[in-house]
Amino acid sequence: MWGDKRFGAQLGQEFIYNNEILEISSTLMKSLCWSGVACIDIRFDEDSKDYKIIEINTRYWRSLVGSLASGVNFPLLSILTHLKGSQLQKPYKEVSFFNLKGLVKYIRTDYKNLLKIRFIWKNTAIKYAILDPLPMIYKFFTRRWV
């Protein structure tokens, strides 16, 4: 789900299996002898009907909490890998995930979505905002008055 700004951040993502993207990413990381965190931006080129690597960022990404909702805890995996060596990766779940702005947009598309309490708790950032409100409070004040 995209926000209102043309090149703004996404409000929601779908975590899906795509063997082609996994193979491209794996080949790229092996060719670079990469170890550690990487956020790879990949886009599908409609003209050539293939995937293009746009960039690699050496940081955790904005959809990190969504990854957690799909069953992948990247920070924990990174720590375990560095402490114990290679870790077996369990399969992740295919899920949709919305940040708080995405949740509002999701509900506005159909107000019946507000009744999907279990989905909202498991597939949005609301659980994290309620269980740990300090980051949200901090973000609210720093983005408003700084």
Structure description:
With 146 residues, this protein is of the alpha+beta class. 45% of the residues lie in helices and 16% in strands. It contains seven helices and four strands, in the order βαββααβαααα. The chain has a two-stranded antiparallel ribbon. Strands 2-3 form a two-stranded antiparallel sheet. A hairpin with a 4-residue loop joins β2 and β3. The model has no long low-confidence stretch (mean pLDDT 86).
Short description:
This protein is of the alpha+beta class. It has helices at residues 19-31, 64-69, 74-84, 100-109, 117-123, 126-131, 134-145, and strands at 12-15, 39-45, 50-57, 95-98.
Beta-strand segment tally:
4
Helices and strands, in order, run as: EHEEHHEHHHH
Give the DSSP E fraction (strand runs of 2 or more residues): 15-25%
Note the total helix count: 7
Major β-sheet strand ordering: 1-4
N→C terminal distance:
28 Å
Which percent bin holds the helix content?
40-55%
Overall SS class: alpha+beta
Shape, principal axes of CA atoms: globular
Q: For the residues shown, what is the average pLDDT?
A: 86
Major sheet characteristics: 2 strands, antiparallel
Residue windows where pLDDT falls under 50 for at least 5 positions: none
- Rg on CA atoms, Å: 17 Å
List keywords for this structure.
146 residues, 7 helices, two-stranded antiparallel ribbon, alpha+beta, globular
Topology record:
Elements (H helix, E strand, L loop, with lengths): L11 E4 L3 H13 L7 E7 L4 E8 L6 H6 L4 H11 L10 E4 L1 H10 L7 H7 L2 H6 L2 H12 L1
Antiparallel strand pairs: 1-4, 2-3
